[in-house]
Amino acid sequence: MNILVIGTGYVGTTTALVLAEMGWNVTGLDTDVGKIERLRQGLPHFYEPGVEPMLRKQLDSGRLRFTAHTREAIEAADTIFICVGTPPLPDGSADLRYIKQVAEDIGRNLNAYKLVVIKSTVPVGTQRRVAEWVGAAQTEPKQFDVVSNPEFLREGKALYDALHPDRIIIGADTVSAGQRMKNMYHSMDCPILVTTPKTAELIKYAANSFLATKISYINELSRLCDKLGINVKEVAQGIGLDPRIGTSFLQAGIGYGGSCFPKDVASLLHTAHEHGSELKLLEEVVAVNRTQYMHLLEKARARLGDFSGKKVALLGLAFKPDTDDIRESIAIRIAERLVDERAYVAAHDPAAVLPAELCASVAQCSSVEQAMQDAHAVFLCTEWDEYLSIDWAAVKHSMHQPNIFDGRNVLDAGKLTTMGFFYQGVGYR
Ligand SMILES: NC(=O)C1=CN([C@@H]2O[C@H](COP(=O)(O)OP(=O)(O)OC[C@H]3O[C@@H](n4cnc5c(N)ncnc54)[C@H](O)[C@@H]3O)[C@@H](O)[C@H]2O)C=CC1
Ligand SMILES: O=C(O)[C@H]1O[C@H](OP(=O)(O)OP(=O)(O)OC[C@H]2O[C@@H](n3ccc(=O)[nH]c3=O)[C@H](O)[C@@H]2O)[C@H](O)[C@@H](O)[C@@H]1O
Question: Which amino acid positions bind NAD(+), per UniProt (predicted)?
Answer without folding.
Answer: 30, 35, 86, 121, 155, 263, 327
